[in-house]
């Protein structure tokens, strides 16, 4: 790749989301908007290497794409006249006049970008489709890059994208930011997509393709953008806080051999203080808004408790147990209860944790979950009941799917480790 | 990846910081900072006081000497910095070239990440953090 191409690619990654968003507002269809934006990119790749990158590349790309849009609309106009579908076409032209890019105010661009985020994460689309479309249109990633990032075959991702755009078009999903009750209803879908991208990157191991580990940064970037666009939404800040604090541990969460290191065993000197501070600040923004913390905010608050403890034994387990209880109220799940049992055990002694476990042990979703017997084994061991503990660790070892984990559990069953 | 963008303003020390005649430039700069923030790029940023508010420590053969400058040229003085998260060097350079200052030089440098160091260095570094 030449220097010029790389520079154009950099401009593209900065401008593409705003470009697609502005065009989608104009033509009312994200698929068409993307095609127009791509046309503009092709034009830039032809012209810029010789003429140089223009003074305002974003405006150049938008003007070029807009001219293509007008051409297309004109062509469609004659086509549609033939079919006497003038009425629909007038609507499209009207929409175009309303959103002249040059005249658009800065916050209108922000609004377009927000509308693009909500459209890409529309609940009509499957989770995979939402993730792919978001990375494509908001992250400016190419289809092969998305495929590599999600370890999926390229044609699968390409097809997923085509289908997603068609679904949005066929359902005539309006290109807009949902308001009021609809906003509250649709925001979780957006947050879920961003957090999925983050977790995919977090799950990637060091030796893997950089595009996978980069997903964490991409998710953080999307979260930070969303926090600027929708600053009144506490859960947006909650999610950003959670991601910043989790990302702060990325240098500590694997040992030299690549094996995962548990939170309490991590070398806290490797936690990134800048990201911890950023996470705490985002959490403060969430807390300053009216209403109690939501599921992301609460998880961030728990993460912040860990971040605050310089040594593991300084962890405020009483507060963490209370936060898990609040989390169990707003987002009930057996896994949350399991975590709460761990926190209760740390805060008030193993018996308190064991008591909670007896309440959830019959939950069918935990039947095959190795962490239930593993946590119980840990609590029994601390309660001075080594034989029962060993039995639980052996049970956990049979359920664990990961060999390394199996070994660790068997070692604990023998009374080591 | 992270990049530090050091800004070297080409001005005299007496013209440092907000003045009556550079309000517009400061406004433009804060719009630029806002744009960077809205693009989700900024990790942190600061503007620095003039050099006279700080000093220089030179270490020769392990021996530290404190002076208050002066610098041979104001071009060698950092006026502020942005720490950004970018997807490539080219993206960082593109953002730097959008800075609205009249006259300045911006040095864009990639930040070392923990993973860039060999394991023994990583261990030593984290020990020294007191971890």
List the helices and strands and how they pair.
The complex is a heterodimer of chains A (417) and B (131).
Chain A: H1 3-27, H2 30-51, H3 57-82, H4 86-98, H5 106-120, H6 127-137, H7 143-149, H8 154-170, H9 180-203, H10 210-229, H11 234-248, H12 273-288, H13 295-308, H14 317-330, H15 334-348, H16 350-360, H17 371-382, H18 386-399, H19 403-413
Chain B: E1 2-9, H1 23-38, E2 42-47, E3 56-60, E4 63-67, E5 80-85, H2 89-97, E6 104-110, H3 119-128
Keywords summarizing the entry:
heterodimer; A: mainly alpha; Serine Threonine Protein Phosphatase 5, Tetratricopeptide repeat; 19 helices; B: about 130 residues; alpha+beta; Alpha-Beta Plaits; about 30% strand
How would you concisely characterize the structure shown here?
With 417 residues, chain A is an all-alpha fold. Helix content of chain A is 72%, strand content 0%.
Number of strands of chain A: 0
Helix content bin of chain B:
25-40%
Determine the CATH superfamily of chain B.
Dimeric alpha+beta barrel
Biggest sheet, spatial arrangement of strands of chain B? 2-5-1-6
Largest interface: A-B, 30 and 29 residues
Residue-averaged pLDDT of chain B = 87
The share of residues in extended strands of chain B comes to 25-35%
What order do the helices and strands of chain B follow? EHEEEEHEH
SS element count, helices of chain A: 19
Strand content of chain A: under 5%
């Amino acid at each position: 790749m030449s220097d010029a191409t790389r520079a154009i690619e950099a401009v593209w990654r900065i401008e593409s989301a705003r470009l697609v968003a502005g065009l989608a507002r104009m033509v009312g269809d994200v698929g068409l908007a993307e095609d127009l934006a791509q046309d503009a990119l092709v034009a830039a790749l032809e012209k810029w290497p010789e003429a140089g990158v223009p003074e305002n590349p974003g405006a150049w790309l938008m003007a070029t794409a807009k001219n293509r849009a007008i051409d297309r609309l004109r062509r469609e106009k004659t086509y549609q006249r033939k079919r006497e579908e003038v009425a629909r076409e007038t609507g499209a032209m009207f929409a175009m006049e309303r959103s002249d890019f040059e005249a658009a105010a800065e916050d209108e661009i922000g609004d377009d970008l927000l509308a693009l985020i909500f459209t890409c994460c529309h609940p009509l689309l499957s989770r995979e489709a939402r993730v792919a479309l978001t990375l494509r249109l908001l992250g400016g990633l190419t289809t092969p890059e998305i495929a590599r990032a999600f370890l999926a075959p390229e044609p699968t991702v390409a097809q997923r994208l085509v289908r997603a755009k068609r679904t949005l078009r066929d359902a005539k999903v309006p290109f807009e930011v949902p308001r009021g009750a609809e906003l509250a209803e649709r925001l979780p879908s957006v947050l879920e997509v961003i957090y999925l991208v983050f977790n995919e990157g977090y799950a990637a191991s060091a030796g893997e393709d950089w595009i996978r580990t980069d997903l964490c940064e991409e998710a953080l970037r999307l979260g930070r953008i969303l926090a600027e666009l929708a600053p009144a939404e506490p859960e947006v800040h909650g999610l950003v806080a959670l991601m910043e604090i989790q990302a702060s541990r990325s240098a500590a969460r694997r040992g030299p051999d690549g094996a995962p290191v548990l939170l309490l065993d991590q070398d806290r000197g490797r936690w990134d203080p800048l990201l911890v501070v950023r996470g705490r600040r985002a959490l403060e923004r969430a807390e300053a808004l009216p209403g109690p913390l939501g599921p992301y905010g609460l998880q961030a608050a728990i993460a912040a408790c860990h971040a605050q403890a310089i040594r593991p034994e300084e962890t405020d387990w009483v507060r963490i147990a209370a936060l898990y209880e609040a989390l169990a109220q707003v987002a009930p799940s057996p896994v949350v209860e399991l975590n709460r049992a761990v926190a209760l055990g740390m805060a008030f002694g193993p018996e308190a944790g064991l008591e909670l476990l007896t309440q959830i042990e019959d939950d069918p979703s935990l039947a095959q979950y190795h962490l239930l017997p593993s946590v119980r084994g840990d609590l029994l061991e601390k309660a001075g009941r080594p034989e029962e503990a060993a039995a639980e660790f052996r049970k956990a070892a049979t359920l664990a799917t990961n060999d390394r984990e199996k070994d660790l559990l068997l070692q604990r069953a023998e009374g080591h480790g | 990846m992270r990049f530090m963008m050091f800004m070297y303003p080409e001005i005299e020390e007496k013209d440092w910081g907000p003045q009556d005649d550079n309000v517009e430039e400061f406004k433009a700069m804060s719009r630029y900072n806002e744009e960077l923030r809205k693009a989700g790029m900024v990790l942190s940023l600061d503007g620095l006081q003039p050099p006279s508010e700080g000093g220089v420590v030179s270490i020769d053969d392990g021996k530290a000497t404190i002076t208050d400058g002066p610098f041979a040229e104001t071009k060698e003085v950092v006026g502020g910095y942005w720490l950004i998260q970018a997807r490539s060097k080219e993206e960082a350079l593109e953002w730097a070239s959008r800075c609205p200052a009249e006259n300045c030089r911006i040095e864009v440098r990639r930040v070392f990440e923990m993973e860039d160091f060999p394991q023994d260095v990583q261990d030593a570094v984290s020990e020294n953090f007191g971890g």
